[in-house]
Amino acid sequence: MLSNHEQSIKGEKQMKIKSDFTIQKVGSSYVAIAVGETSKTFRTMIKLNSTGAFLWNLLSEKDLTEEELVEALLAEYDVERETAANDVRKIVTVLAQNQILQ
Fold first, then answer.
1. pLDDT at 91 over 60
2. Crossing angle, helix 50-61 and helix 66-76, to 10 degrees?
3. d(CA 19, CA 61)
4. Cα separation of 93 and 96, whole Å?
5. Full-prediction pTM beyond 0.90?
6. Which are the contacts of 80, defined by CB distance < 8 A and separation ≥ 6?
7. What is the CATH number of the domain that holds 53?
8. Number of C-alpha atoms within 13 angstroms, CB side, residue 30?
9. What distance, in Å, lies between the first and last C-alpha atoms of the chain?
């Protein structure tokens, strides 16, 4: 197993959803919200499609790298690698900007 330092050198930083965030299904979409104490300061709801919810569920279970998320999308959906990588990059960026990842 690689150390965190070796992972960052290889660009394989692992990430996971913080425990004080969850998603809820609303109609055909999903929204990410804060729970517990975090909900007092985090007043944003992030809308996710089914792909975003799929990635969220993976990230809420265990630490994963972007590459592992891409591989999971390729296994679950009939998409090209480039599309999967772009989708992963978009959701990871949104989650990181909102400080939802640890």
1. yes
2. 130
3. 10
4. 5
5. no
6. none
7. 3.90.930
8. 15
9. 19
